[in-house]
Amino acid sequence: MDMLRVTFLGTGSIADMTRRCASTAVTLPNGDVIVVDTGAGQEAMFGLRTLGIDPCRVRAIVLTHQHLDHAGGLPFMVTGIRFMSLAPGAPRGRLEICAPAAAVNGLRVSCDTMYPGIFNPWCLGDRATWHACDPQHYLWGLDLLEDGTAALATDLAPAGAAEARPGAIATIVTMAVAHGSPPLPAQAVRLDVAMPDGTMRRIVFSGDTGPNLDLGKVGPEPDLMVHEASSVEALGHDTDATVTIGHVTAATAGRVATRARARRLALHHLGSSWSGNPEAARTEAAMHFAGEIHVPNDLESVEI
Fold first, then answer.
1. pTM
2. Domain count, the chain
């Protein structure tokens, strides 16, 4: 591969039964995969298999927060990867699991509860490493290295690097954001991916968050910004209510993408009241963002 592929395994929320819950797979040029959020159940793993993406090539799972529709699929994913890796010839590489520091213990317990012993030596054992993304620091980062290992990344200035980091096929960067009522640990995610020609591609995921015009500080000028849009002002949705529970409208997503100088914008975490009318969201976001706007369906992909 000489392209970076972003596959929307799920684009909806827990309130919308017509779509899978939020999960995105990023396939790197070497075939490894980074999954951002895991949906609510087995649908993300099912989506990977349906699209021919080998779950055993999942190199890292990054969770934006611990709500059911974003992290409920984690036990299914880690258990599925373990069992699929037992097949003859299947990849058995390391699995990096990244989550907000305050959420790591609860998420690990949920996996152990759903499949007791999953992280014991006879299961995933030391193949799986948990990383607590520390919200006390402005940015937290992890380099996925060419040799299959990972190392904490330093020098993660918001401006980022013009070129890929030496020795890293991808760098995962997180930044704490505000979400939930009451608030809970949550983070935006940036992926800097090394391309075969020596250049770098950048993707920024908002996660679930209230209005945050400074989101571009996690990584300006992303090639793609994947931003939630839980409601559409033009359809008469209550903007105040949306913000109160830690979400944004399509209009705000457009403003954030412009502030970040994004090249393309994808709207996801679609609200149940407008998921059947994607053009309304696209039109509203386009009033504030001049770049290309995607409103993907489940299992659709874009290439960067």
1. 0.95
2. 1
CB-based burial label for 97 (10 Å; 0-12, 13-18, 19+) = buried
- Mean pLDDT for 59-69 is 96
For residue 15, the tally of other CB atoms under 10 A from its CB is: 14
Cα–Cα distance for residue pair 254/266, rounded to 1 Å: 10
CA angle 57, 102, 36 (to 5 degrees): 25
Q: What is the CATH number of the domain that holds 129?
A: 3.60.15.10
Instruction: Give 203's Cβ-side CA count (13 Å radius).
Output: 26
* pLDDT tens, residue by residue, 171-224: 999 999 989 777 899 999 999 999 999 899 999 999 999 999 888 888 889 999
Q: pLDDT of 93-114, one tens digit each?
A: 999 999 999 999 999 999 999 9
Cα–Cα distance for residue pair 138/159, rounded to 1 Å: 13
The verdict on residue 211 lying in a domain is yes
Radius of gyration (C-alpha) of the chain in whole angstroms? 18
Do the domain assignments include residue 232?
yes
Residue 25, domain member (yes or no): yes
CA 71, 117, 76, 172 dihedral sign is: positive
| Torsion angle in degrees (nearest 10) through CA of 152, 193, 94, 227 | 90
For residue 303, tell me if it sits in a domain. no
Place of tokens 């012993």: 117
Question: In the β-sheet with 150-152, what is the strand arrangement from edge to edge?
Answer: 150-152, 140-145, 168-176, 187-194, 200-205, 224-228, 264-268, 292-294
Q: What is the dihedral of CA 44, 192, 103, 94, to 10 degrees?
A: 70
On the question of pLDDT at 161 being above 60, the answer is no
| Alpha carbons within 13 A on the beta-carbon side of 169 | 21
Angle, to 10 degrees, between the axis of helix 74-84 and the axis of helix 43-50?
Answer: 40
Left (φ > 0), alpha (ψ -120 to 50) or beta: where does 13 sit?
Answer: beta
